[in-house]
Amino acid sequence: MSERVDILERRAGAVDIIAVKGRLDAGSSEKAEERINRVLDAGGRYLLINLCDLDYISSSGLRVLLAALKRLKKDGGALRIACAQPQILEVFTMAGFHRIFSLSPDEATALAGFPAGP
Amino acid sequence: MAELTVRAELGALTAIADFLAGTLAGSADDMVFSVQLAVDEACSNTILYGYPNREAGAITIACTVDDDVIRVTITDDGVAFDPLTAPPPLLDIPAEERPIGGLGIHFIRTVMDNVAYARRDDRNVLSMEKRRPASG
User: Fold this and answer.
1) What topology does CATH give the domain B2-131?
2) Which residues in chain A are contacts of B41 at CB distance < 8 A?
3) ipTM at complex level
4) Which residues pair with A50 in a beta bridge?
5) H-type helices in A9-103, by residue range?
6) Which sign, positive or negative, has the C-alpha torsion B107, B110, B112, B115?
7) I want to staple A82 with a disulfide (CB 3.0 to 4.6 A). Which of A60, A70, A110, B18 is the partner?
8) Tens place of pLDDT for every residue, chain B, 136 residues?
9) Chain B residues touching A25 at Cβ < 8 A
10) Element (H, E) at B2
11) Which helix (H) or strand (E) is B70 found in, with range?
């Protein structure tokens, strides 16, 4: 198998939720980037990335998240990350990304961090 | 020693991760994750940048597990590239100003205890070591 990532999208009010499951490496990050950009192209301004079931992330995966964060900040939106597992958090910390991303322990906490209502 | 040779294509990264998981079975989870991350970053660089305007070559990953250390050697026939000459990334500046890139090599240096590069017989040879704690 050449790629091992699943990406699921849904909405909660004004927030687009994208769950990324499996491995986010150089081979699968392009697919994740396409899906995120599709949501942002459609006008999504509040993006919650759920990493509960993400087992692995490399610098390629971090680059995709950083690109989305930059784009949303420029457009007056927001991105929050929920539920990253300890080894994923360690990669964020190594990159210094724990200081530039909003990381929440679970999806409900992340959702509550967005501005209320449309 | 366990060894795996793959074509230098992005689709091979999962096979490399599986090979390391199998070879390092019995080591602590965080050791396995560290070695997988370092090897994945090194191989990703080779695959993305090692074969400009020519057909992808081959990458060989050799791994030995001793009581006190895990050794991994990655050999490829791509263009000469010493990752250890890359400057460290700027980690303390705002997201908007971050340059993209340089993180992979930073990860390799961070998670491994020793990293050495050599160019031998028209091949890049990256040797890495990760010390194992006494408890395994």
Assistant:
1) Heat Shock Protein 90 (3.30.565)
2) 58-59
3) 0.92
4) A19, A82
5) 29-41, 59-74, 86-95
6) positive
7) A110
8) 999 999 999 999 999 999 999 999 999 999 999 999 999 999 999 999 999 989 999 999 999 999 999 999 999 999 999 988 877 777 777 666 666 557 899 999 999 999 999 999 999 999 999 999 875 4
9) 13-14, 17, 40, 44
10) strand B2-7
11) strand B69-76
* B44 part of contact set with chain A, CB < 8 Å: yes
Query: Which B residues in the span 48-67 are in contact with A, Cβ-Cβ below 8 Å?
Result: 48
B22: amino acid identity, one letter: G
| Cβ contact A94–B111 (<8 Å) | yes
pTM of the model: 0.93
What chain A holds in terms of domains, given with CATH numbers, is 5-112 (3.30.750.24)
The strand pairing partners of A24, in sequence order, are A57
Of A26, A66, A74, the CB nearest to B10: A26
Q: How far apart are CA B70 and CA B131, in angstroms?
A: 6
Buried-exposed string A44-66: b where 16+ CB fall within 10 A, e elsewhere: bbbbbbbbeebbbbbbbbbbbbb
